[in-house]
Amino acid sequence: MAKIKQLASFAVLNVNGGDRVTYTYDEIDAETGDLISANNKGNFFVVDPTLKGKITQIRNYIQENKLTED
């Protein structure tokens, strides 16, 4: 049985000065589309410089566009 893993959600947390990504995903049967399992969880610390840069860009965007007063 072939499975598809579909990302359901993710978050980036600042843990002791480092970024930790947590995520949940569902597993779906690739042939029937039936749900095999839901709300599976995983996490990892960000060590890749390119990914760190993208996270910084998202944080900056939020700070500049969502948290500044008009």
Supply the key terms.
single chain; 70 residues; alpha+beta; 3-stranded antiparallel beta sheet; 1 helix; 51% strand; elongated
Question: Quick recap of the structure?
Answer:
The chain is α+β, with helices and mostly antiparallel strands and 70 residues long. It is built from 1 helix and 3 strands; from the N terminus they run βββα. It is 24% helix and 51% strand.
Work out the helicity level: 10-25%
Strand line-up of the largest beta sheet: 1-2-3
Structural class by helix and strand composition: alpha+beta
Number of extended strands: 3
Write down the overall geometry. Answer: elongated
- Count of separate DSSP helical elements: 1
Main sheet attributes: strand count, strand direction, barrel closure:
3 strands, antiparallel
Query: How much is the radius of gyration in Å?
Result: 16 Å
Tell me the fraction of residues in β-strands, as a range: over 45%
Q: Could you tell me how far the N terminus lies from the C terminus, measured between alpha carbons in angstroms? A: 54 Å
Question: What's the rounded overall pLDDT mean?
Answer: 96
Low-confidence stretches: none
| H/E series | EEEH
